[in-house]
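Practice problem: predict the structure.
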Amino acid sequence: MDSTATLAPRIKIAQVNDLTNIAARFPLLSAPVQAINAKHQALGGDGGWLGKATIAHTLTPNKKGWYRHYQNGSIYWSQATGAHEVHGLIRNKWAAMGWENSFLGFPTSDELQGGGAGRLSAFQGGVIYWSPTTGAHEVHGLILEKYKQLGADKSYLGYPVSDELDLGVNNGRISNFEHGQIAWSPAIGAAASATTYQPAASSGGLIKPQGVGGDGAPQIRRRLVCAAHMYLTDHETFGSNEHGSADKQNEAVLTSDLPQDVLTMQKGAGGEMRVELKLIGQVKLSGDILIQGSALLYEGTSETTNDLDGDLDFTVLVPRDGVISRTVTVTNEDEGGDSGVISMTFSNFAA
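Answer:
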């Protein structure tokens, strides 16, 4: 974030380069001047990345704070927020919105590291997020609150790709993100969706997020691909053990609404045993997929026996945009050394 807007003076209170030495003669100036200078020194002073001052300490146009521009950014101070630096493309965005006169107000943090290669700066009335692929955009109000609840820039939504927008329906508001949207309306408050929003004619034009139920909970859609390999051993007390194997793969689009069956398979071996596998999946609000698995081992006089001698329940968490493998073993808990080794691979990507 090396790009910096032109740092032009705004309202100067004195034609001097530095008010530090005269702050003691003007007590009302002491706090902001010293705070701005201290922040500058903490960031490396004239030799730091902000560089040297380009204007004097200056009263903001709304008379609620002070600021000073430097070669590579600015430091703003107010009684309520203290002194914080703003620079680069986030500073440019704030400037375009009206600086501290905008609804964002004064900065409440320095620029911070976000998820991945992104950055963010917090303000009294919201947050400006930036990433190399999305640029700088603001998020505020109840949409920001919902965004933070989901994990903000580290959530499945990713970084904002728009400022907050007027949906044009019954005072509705909406913010777009890399992988979804958050909208607000008087009917449902703020709700997230991995798809889109549309007016709901049946409710007098109020916002209806697609894939969101009456409780306002978001529906997250993910594509799961799972593959399983079974290797069975039918243990023989006399003679050689007998074996069997089977493979199966399935692809399913899952949502956060309800659990869904994603793979069912069975295989017999030795004419006496059978292993059954069942996998159920459901998407979490984070975009991860929770797999609940059940492996059952039957052993008797035939492969169709209903004599259950072993069972194993297990879970697998498949990370969003990730691939994971898991191997489990179900054994005969009643007699013999019969077993079924099940190797599975899962992938979880956008649907």
